[in-house]
Amino acid sequence: MDPRTVSKLEQKFQEAMIDILVNMGLKKVPLLPSQTTAHLMAKAAVTVYEAAVENNQREV
What is the per-residue burial (b if ≥16 Cβ within 10 Å, else e) of 25-54? Predict the structure, then answer.
């Protein structure tokens, strides 16, 4: 995937994850991740998505 698209996806995933965790609150989730951890979580999610895209393209 295009590096700019990957970067934008990582940013949006990170924002979404933080919003979800903050809205759930500490009563539901035991820890709010640091910015570094949230960034790594977003990078992991996008990597999984890229693998799914690649696998789908191979099947076609």
Answer: eeeeeeeeeeeeebbebbeebbeeeeeeee
Provide the domain limits for residue 50.
Answer: 3-59
pTM, two decimal places: 0.85
User: Contact at 8 Å (CB) between 39 and 10?
Assistant: yes
Residues in the chain: 60
Structural domain total, the chain: 1
Distance from C-alpha of 9 to C-alpha of 25, rounded to nearest angstrom: 24
8-to-3, 12, 17, 46 alpha-carbon distances in Å: 9, 6, 14, 10
User: pLDDT of 38-52, one tens digit each?
Assistant: 999 999 999 999 999
